[in-house]
Amino acid sequence: MRLYLALALQALWTGVCQAAIQHYPAAWGHYDVCKSQIYSDEGLTWDYMACQPETADMTQYLKVMLDPPNITCGNPPETYCALENPYMCNNECDASTEELAHPPELMFDIEGRNPTTFWQSTSWKRYPKALLVNITLSWNKTIELTDDIVLTFESGRPEQMVLEKSLDYGRSWQPYQFYATDCLDAFTMEPKTVQDLTQHTLLDIICTEDYSRGYVWKYDKTVRFEIKDRFALFAGPQLHNMASLYGQLDTTKNLRDFFTITDLRIRLLRPATGATMVDENNLSRYFYAISDIKVQGRCKCNLHANSCVFDKEKLSCECEHNTTGPDCGRCKRNYQGRAWSAGSYLPIPKGTANICIPNNIGPVTRVCDNELMRCQNGGVCISNVRCNCPSAYTGLLCEKPLCESELGGCRGASSGQRPLRPASSFVLLLLLGLALH
């Protein structure tokens, strides 16, 4: 008998655990659905959720501009020498010949080709005047970065470089990170790495020497701006606790803006030299060459869209929740019954849609949420304006048994009040212990 009871309780406990796992998924939601249909007292209705587009390769949608405009090699044709061997001078750049040209578009083509394709600058033929290049990437749209920015150099990594961002379509710029072989000498900044940052110093602008030092440049080609390491300060090393990160992004505007851009600018200030002194007799060894730039992100749609379209050379959100605009940043006409608000990641995992409502229904009071004003007895909060109650309950927060208004009250056999809830996990464990005693 005890064995039978133990097996029965074990099966019941397994079912409870599985239900818990299904209710709290390991992935804390991708916010990829903006609305779904549910049944309520009024029949079939919409349940709105915060939503955002999937992550994509954002280099497909950018425009690139170089300054100075004539900085790309090949006009006139030029021969280059290898940095590590000044006598190996068999690399030619000629803009008039497709096989020998190195235009900026080659920074964004398909990688893995043999030979490698890359953009290349003119050589440092005007030394000691600085070889300065600005590479500006523009999206004409706000985007949110979701992974590391990675630059791959074919000429040796630059000895001095600055990565900058703009949030206003290139009208103003702020530094993202400084890079140098000697941060104190180049920028009067103490050298740091992203591992030196904390949750409180995450927004600090640092200078790093991690991507500029080292003579064996053929094996160290990449320069990074570490997005995921910064995410990990809130989400953990493997980014398992995305709920914490979403919560921080939701409540800290400066943090959210830190990962949001309209433009990036790469300022190349000094090419790789491979030595302490520049060889003035062979300046064709010194130049910039970039084979790949990776920028992963998504359109910023203020959590009001789950897709973004590229039409007529422009990115635009496909807005839901009665919102409109390139970033879903305002309410549609006739849907301005309350002030526009961005969606919210909270509560996890569906967030809050903050939909725009029709003009003619008057101001809407916040009736419920998933924190302080919870719907009771299994009710579901719909867009913060009402509780969708189970059939046996009524009231603003589903707090009243429906049977209270029936003849005989809630003691009648036909009251419709739902049965008592299953025993708690503590009771199940207690019974299991008694069965095995």
Layout: helices, strands, pairs:
Blueprint: H1 2-23, E1 35-40, E2 43-48, E3 56-57, E4 63-67, E5 78-80, E6 91-93, E7 119-120, E8 133-145, E9 149-153, E10 160-166, E11 174-180, H2 183-187, E12 207-208, E13 222-225, H3 227-235, H4 242-251, H5 253-258, E14 260-270, E15 289-294, E16 296-299, E17 308-311, E18 314-317, E19 323-324, E20 330-331, E21 380-382, E22 386-388, E23 393-394, E24 400-401, H6 425-436
Helix pairs in contact: 1-6, 3-4
Characterise the protein shown here.
With 437 residues, this protein is α+β, with helices and mostly antiparallel strands. It contains 6 helices and 24 strands. The protein has helices at 2-23, 183-187, 227-235, 242-251, 253-258, 425-436, and strands spanning 35-40, 43-48, 56-57, 63-67, 78-80, 91-93, 119-120, 133-145, 149-153, 160-166, 174-180, 207-208, 222-225, 260-270, 289-294, 296-299, 308-311, 314-317, 323-324, 330-331, 380-382, 386-388, 393-394, 400-401. 30% of the residues are buried.
What descriptive keywords fit this protein?
single chain; 437 residues; alpha+beta; 4-stranded antiparallel sheet; elongated; disordered N terminus
**Mean pLDDT figure:** 83
| Shape assignment | elongated
The share of residues in extended strands comes to 15-25%
Number of strands: 24
Largest sheet: 8 strands, mixed
Rg to the nearest angstrom?
A: 30 Å
Q: Structural class of the secondary elements? A: alpha+beta
Number of helices: 6
Order of helices and strands: HEEEEEEEEEEEHEEHHHEEEEEEEEEEEH
In whole angstroms, the N-to-C terminal distance is 12 Å
Low-pLDDT sequence parts: 1-29, 412-437
Helix content: 10-25%
